Amino acid sequence: MSDWLGSVFPVIKPVIAMLHLSALPGDPGFDTAAGIRAVVDRAKSELADLQEGGVDGIMISNEFSLPYLTKTEPITAISMARIIGELLGDIRIPYGVNVLWDGRASIDLAVATGAQYVREIFTGVYASDFGLWNTNIGEVARHRARVGGGDVKLFFNIVPESAKYLADRDLKSITETTVFATLPDAICVSGLTAGAPTDVQALATVKSAAGSVPVFVNTGVRANNVGDQLAIADGAIIGTYFKKDGVFENRVEQARVHELMGAARDARASF
Hints:
The chain is an alpha/beta fold. The chain has helices at residues 4-8, 35-52, 74-87, 103-113, 137-146, 171-182, 200-209, 226-232, 254-269, and strands at residues 15-20, 57-61, 95-98, 117-120, 126-128, 131-133, 153-157, 163-165, 186-189, 215-217, 235-238. It has a single domain (4-269), classed as Aldolase class I (TIM Barrel, Alpha-Beta Barrel). Helix 3 links the parallel strand 2 (57-61) and strand 3 (95-98).
């Protein structure tokens, strides 16, 4: 197992919580009347609930920038940097960022805000709900080096949501060549959409093929399945379950965070 995970997180099999930012300036759903102050205030409130609930890390993303772009406009990362700047004094745990769906912008934001990791679709070509989706990991990796982001860890989502890999390849071979040729720091395995269950067999396939690269379950983790998922995966990234009633659009509810993290701690004690 890669030793970087233990150097960032003080526990085995860490649970990283998504901190979903409300729609931002430039997004169709941005509340121009409330302004960016309302986005900051909600983020501060949800950050407090996630940390008090005991999560091991957070991932700050523009989850409500729907519909997503594969090359974001500058205003998105600029707005996120401003918001994260206001959150930094409150963050007590490891944190990462994700500018959906733009790997280069995610790295820029991480370097600018001191984030330790990013998650994105860095490899592959897909037919997606937002058009033909191509990537260029060689260019992104070189960009990371140029901007001084060599220490920023890259989480590769190799089963992207709302998209289908165009090449006729199985998940095992995709994992093996991703590890060999593109040098991920971690691999994420997802369901069809945010909050959708991740197939346990798919997770096991990726884990067996990933060698020493950590594998994270990326969607659909709940209090009643976190033990089974962490029995296979090296960590989990969780967003929807922490929301009121487990609904994607709702705010984080601290009681649900406590519930899941209690189940995760019980599971980790047996590993």
